[in-house]
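For reproducibility, we list the full input for the adenosine-5'-diphosphate complex.
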Amino acid sequence: MSADNPLLNTIWKSACLEIKNSLGEDAYIRHIEPLKAIDVNDGKITLEVDNEYSLSWIKNNYLGIINDAMSKVAGDFIKDVSLSVSETQEPIPSPEPIIPVQDMSSDNNLGRIVNIGSVNVYSQSNTTDPHSSNVRGIKMNAEYTFANFIVGPSNSFATNAAFAVANNPGTAYNPLFIYGDTGLGKTHLMQSIGQDSITKNNRIIVCNTTSEALLNDYLENLRNNTVEKFRKKYRSVDILLIDDIQFLAGKAALQEEFFHTFNTLKERGKQIVMTSDRPPKDIDKLEERLVSRFSQGLVCSVEHPSFETRLAILKQKHEQNYKVPIIPDTIFNFIAQNVESNVRQLEGALRRVEMHISLNNNLSPSIEAVRELLKDILTLEIQPGLTFNEIQKVVAEHYNLNIADMASKCRSQSIALPRQIAMYLCCALIKASLGEIGGAFGKTHATIIHATKTIKDRMSTDPDLKRNIEAIIKKLGRDPVATINMVDGY
Ligand code: ADP
Ligand code: MG
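The corresponding predicted structure, in tokenized form, follows.
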């Protein structure tokens, strides 16, 4: 079976969604996205990598995760994952010079830099991308374009604003600030601005980054005494896109530095676009002068999509990637009706159904079978009965603590960690605003976000913690995998 085989595409796309959920966006883009699924035969799927370095790096670090994802999406259908080096591989360059992954400033945008363990190797594989020399920072997702974005009442205001900015960067609305809950298309819209403006004007330089990548880059330059280089890099672009700017909260030195970058860009008529999970004025520990600057242009929100918009998104996602297998309208309707909270989740449900149909000789399942297939996602949507109190109680019991410890100010690690776990689980399992969750713990919403992220990060390196959290989720009667995936994006 060849690379344009729909079944192969379905399996690999579905597995990629799973892998992205467990690895996070950055590692996914860096290590998994460059892989190509080229063959599926007799229970074995073959993935192609650029060169021998990538092969051993993937084998040693990611094969386990890829295998897990495969068995989750394809069950027994795929028994083996094999890796092969592309026959058209470029000769492997010497691993020197060592160039930091984040550093894609103008003098080194000749090719993509791939982080291979402790050394960074140049990969020429992306030089065919006509726009690669226009983009600095994090590579943009080629699918995040205006053409692929479904507009409905929930996002039309933000989309129009984004479109205006792409047409007239630096003059329409500056800065443009887009906020809203997770999985509602903020990153997609922001990157659409970057990609569309390059298409319209190939001299435009776009820097796409996140506040976390910005922080890492800043610290790296600070350590190396090269802050001037950092300044030059971000102040010499035409459009600066910063995702999840809320994580600037509490980072005083970076806020100071960013204040000047912001002013310089604005004075020069350069465009700034930011996304966040809340409006500027609600970001705690953000300097007042930044709050006021972030609000100077246009602040707009993306809301939860209506049923019609959800349906249109499903059909478009299906069209975009496969068109086959054929999915009956009753199933599209069922998914759109029942998966309301998050477009990422909507896409996950669709991929699962596509997989199921592909693996069953293109026969459509009954609605009952779809309900069974999507059981964990639907449980999350309905979430009957779970309260903050219940979650706090189960976590406290699991760690032999008093329920009062869950809302106490005690900083001892033996209490602080379970408390953060409880916050994380409230985010995953209860449809409530961060402010409401904060209230249940006597904390601010910034603390809830911080706790959730801390737990998410620690879980990826600490299997013991992960096992404990999975056990707690089971005690709460929920599915651990679906619950953990739900928090992706916080
Ligand atoms: P956010 O940044 O708000 O958390 P993303 O931009 O990452 O959300 O969107 C999550 C997923 O949902 C992406 O795959 C994105 O393409 C998709 N998505 C969200 N809204 C839409 C939409 N209106 N039309 C098409 N796809 C959408
Ligand atoms: Mg996002």
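The pocket of magnesium ion (ligand 2) is lined by residues 186-187, 243 (CB under 6 Å). Confidence is low (pLDDT under 50) at residues 91-128. Both points were considered when choosing residues for closer inspection.
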